[in-house]
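Subgroup meeting minutes
Present: P.N., E.W., G.H.
Scribe: E.W.

1. P.N. recapped why we're keeping a running log of single-chain structure predictions: easier to compare across weeks, and new members can see raw inputs and outputs side by side.
2. G.H. added today's entry (310 aa).
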Amino acid sequence: MDDKEIRAIVTLSLLASFADGDKHAREREEIRRIAEGLADDERLHLPTLYQDVLLKRVSLASTAAALTSQESKQLAYEMAVCVCDADGQQSEPERRFLEELRTALGLSAPIAAEFSGVADEVAAAPLAAGAGISPGSSPNEAELDRMIVNASIMNGALELLPESLSTMAIIPLQMRLVYNIGKAHGYELDSGHVKDFLATAGVGLTSQFIEQAGRKLLGGLLGSLAGGLGRGIGNQAVSSGMSFASTYALGHVAKRYYAGGRTFSSEMLRDAYERVMQEGRNVQAQYLPAIQEKARTLDVGKVLEMVRGR
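Output recorded in log:
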């Protein structure tokens, strides 16, 4: 893909992020920050994309027309679907946007529907699947720490895979980790509570996917599902272990939050998350061999089974 196609894919992802018109101001700010932060390559002029989208200076039709290869069209559609599904199942405005995009890209309706259906399934993955923890069972600190490290390694491995669905799977697996930690402390949580916890800590669901997938795209790692399911890991991590560090931080902050009777204020949660996020970045190198080894054992099929809790 050339620079023009990469810019078009990122633009379509940003258009998808605002398709439902219902983004919280905090999430909109995160999306802006990420769009500006993806500007490592000055040729792409990425900081201007957010403003172009927000001020409606670009259209879906003209942006889609910049994509000429089948691979870039499929990838653009996949990323848009994942953006729409990142914070839950698609709204009616998002479904209309995706159908308009599919038509503009000239993609087959059955193939697009198949991918969208799988993405919907990932977005709606049950929190309790494969949990194996009884409410109030109170595992000791070492058990919880091991659970957090294992989840961080898994999500770090997903960061190395080239498929968009692998990137999307990181969010539900982070939610499941928080659910399991809360359950271990006697709290039976639902997806709404877990999403609120992530949002309060400063983790935007849509913005996190855009950042992870955007960095993969700019690094040349992100590829189309149509290219095959078992293509192996990329040559390098393209976002400095962000998935490992964010999962590590969410796990440890959740452990303190639920052990302390959910008494943290919003500010305390955000401050704690930022501190532990830095700790996660520092220890990620220690676990890099385990992350890379885990990535070698994964493909999209295995990822989907894991999300389903099998």
